[in-house]
Amino acid sequence: MGVGIKVENLNAWYGTNHALLDINLHIPAQEATALIGPSGCGKSTFVRCLNRMHETNPIAKVNGKVQIGDIDIYSEATPVEVRRRIGMVFQRPNPFPTMSIYDNVASGLRLNGFGNRRILDEVVERSLRSAALWDEVNADLKKKSGARLSGGQQQRLCIARALAVDPEVLLMDEPASALDPVSTAKIEDLIFQLKSQYTIVIVTHNMQQAARVAERTGFFLNGKLVEFDSTHKIFTNPGDKRTEDYITGRFG
Amino acid sequence: MVLCALSIFAIVALICTELVVRSQLTIAKFGIKFFFGSAWDPVNGNFGALPFVYGTLASSLISLVIAVPLAVGVAIFITEMCPKMLRGILAFLTELLAAIPSIVYGVWAVFVLVPILREHVNPILIKLFGWTGLFTEPNFGIGMFAAGVILAIMILPIISSLTREVMSAVPHSQREAVLALGATRWEMIRMGVLRNARIGIVGSIILGLGRALGETMAVTMVIGNSPQILKNLLAPGYSMASVIANEFSEASDDTYRSALIEIGLALFLVTIVVNALARVLVWAVTRGAPARST
Amino acid sequence: MATQYKTSAWNRLSRTAADHLASGLAVLSTILVITPLVVIFGYLVYKGASSLNLAFFTNVPKPVGETGGGMANAIIGSAVLLGIGSAIGVPIGIAAGIFLAEFGQGGKLANIVRFTADVLNGVPSIVMGIAVYSLIVLPQKHFSAFAGGVALGIMMIPTITRTTEEMLLMVPHSIREAALGLGVPNWRSVLSVSLRTASPGVITGCMLAFARVAGETAPLLFTAFGNQFWSANIGQPIAALPLQIYVYANSPYDEWHRLAWAGALVLISLIVISVSLVRYVTSRGVLKGAN
To answer: Would A228 be classed as within a structural domain?
Structure first.
């Protein structure tokens, strides 16, 4: 099940642009943690450092320690292993258009060598149920392409796909920002249900969303982590003036 | 303006009509059996085009077998693995390969490729694969296999450029989705890029086939010009384009000429269909104006 | 951290191995592809450069057995053929390109024209040769430079049409609007403003087409036919560089082979220069006048 994340002195660059400066934080296990901040503040970059996706960019550089569970993901594991155990859901839903719904969800398992039909059937159903999508799609799992669902359904499909490999951490980079309000509400409900089983880190520019789903919230500004505390405290009595300015809408 | 645009239409129509009209003699005389007869005997007025059809298809097929894996491999390397610096140079070199005239390929093939094949490559093929019957003595160097090899070199750039283009058209988000599941780079390429681009890649292969079918000069110089249908790929053969190139000016009577023009007509129709099919497939993936073929 | 579905060591190993294998094969393919190019160029220079002397460029072919022959007539002949071809192909191609870009976006007629241009592009060059033979050589009862030029010109049309359309489409709307705003009726604005802006690109397209047909042999086999002597007469058979190379390469004489290599080197140099020029022009920004 979910594990905690410990980040020490994390720095990241895009070429010469110093995108993250000395980030230190501890994300508790089996909780939802929200990361908020204005555009370009580094919250997405931070999250991409947690599953080593940041380094897929040819001009990207990373420095520091990220410990997920009891493993330092930069010095004690390969990127492939890290990403296997950390799921990611992106801002725009990206299901595989050439695969059926079933194959989409099963793709992660198949990559890792699990071909047994019974296991796959079981996991696909369980993942789709966890993503609150099972009832809507179970009729034509294998016939319908992953891309032929609505936006909200596609995103839930992506969540199911990420859950199928039983990750310890689920990273969500503005998962509902491309969706309509109804789908957004469904996704938020989902996060609520999932967080007891997984450790969820959700990047959002929607403060109400953070307040609704997360126990803890971190505020990023210009590549620095300004404040990290319980959601309640951040939104009612922030410790830093910059946080307060952002919350009350003075900028961003 | 409109007139000029319509003139293109007129030109194609003219070409088509000419080909049809001038081949009437043999169309009327032999009908469809023209393409199934294997006896090419101009002296006695007996024309069967099967050896040439076989030659065109066989040499094209050989060229595809050799060129496709290499072209896709190069495309993968340039698009997904190459350091940015090299990319421009490699793309330029591929473009250069595509622009080399057929006759230059032909000269090089006759004087350099064929001896290399004869002395070094074919003996190995005979030793390893002689049991299949595809590679046996006699080994002159010149023959169907040599034609296939030079064709492969010629169609490689087209397949590669087009494959590169359809691969680049795959959105980055697909690559990220696969990587985030914990895939290796090759798995990302396989599942995230090639899978999504496969229709376009098939289209580029078909376009390469279209080029190979109509290729004349280089093939004529190395295929051996012998209208026979043999299992041995090292034996001389003949292609549709080659027989026209070699024998057209010597066609002494109308029937002979008509036969050759009918072969030209067949070549014309087949390449239209193949190219149209290719364009549709590539367009389906890149969703825009069909890509340049060079 | 054990998860319910722990991947086996075999799975991890085989996937890493597959990844390395794929990378290796991709690199190998690239090497295998670049090698013929390098080798071909190398041979051309090696075999052809020594024969590129003044005699090559100024002499006509000498009879078998004599040395010092050249391909002067073939070079001039090619120039004549390309001149005729351009005179036919460039105007039609550019006009058709203008039509497609300015008046044909999305129209059914335009799509048919585009498809037809593609069909024309795909016609094997040998078929083009025999078609022009039927159309021009047969009625005239003799081979001619004119017929050869027509064949080459027709082959230039699709490339020029396509690039002209593309280049014109790249001209920003703001430029057209500016011209219209000045009270210029539409067709005039198209011609003067858009064309002028796109002209570097259009010229590039013509160069591309020119270079492509300069090396064509097959369409000339039964139209221009070739000529061992000086001739610039449009109504008579004429020599051409690719044709001459073909004849010489097919012959059994070493001296002629030597000349064939030299001719091939000249041809490929022309191609390399054009391709590089085209790349240079397009990379520097075709629409320099667009601001």
So the answer is: yes
Position B7 in a domain:
no
Note whether residue B192 is domain-resident. yes
C249 contacts in chain B (CB < 8 Å): 103, 106-107, 110-111, 221
Q: Given an 8 Å threshold on Cβ–Cβ distance, is B186 in contact with C92? A: no
- The residue segments making up the domain with residue B179 are 16-286
Chain C partners of B210 at a C-beta cutoff of 8 Å?
Answer: 122
Written as six digits, the tokens of A119 are 């296991």
- Domain C75-241 maps to which CATH number in 1.10.3720.10, 1.20.1250.20, 1.10.10.410, 1.10.3290.10? 1.10.3720.10
| DSSP 8-class letter at A229 | E
**Tens of pLDDT, residues A44-99:** 999 999 999 999 988 999 999 999 988 999 999 999 999 999 999 999 999 999 99
**What pLDDT score was predicted for residue B114?**
95
Rounded to 5°, angle at Cα B112 from B107 and B118? 125
Q: How many residues does chain B have?
A: 294
3-state secondary structure A5-17: EEEEEEEEEECCE
Q: Is residue A144 part of a domain?
A: no
Could you report the per-residue pLDDT of A17-30, keeping only the tens digit for each?
Answer: 999 999 999 999 99
B183: nearest CB among A58, A111, A158: A111
Residue B8 lies in a domain: no
Quick check: bond before A95 cis, omega within 30? no
ipTM: 0.91
Distance from CA of A1 to the nearest CA of C (A): 8
Asked if the model's pLDDT at residue C238 lies above 60, the reply is: yes
Give how many domains chain B has, as a whole number: 1
Report the DSSP beta bridge partners of residue A71.
A68
- Give domain status of residue B1, yes or no: no
Number of domains in chain A: 1
Determine, yes or no, domain membership for A141.
no
Which residue type occupies C21? Answer: L
Interchain pair C1, A70: CB under 8 A? yes
Rounded-to-integer distance, Cα C124 and Cα C126, Å: 5
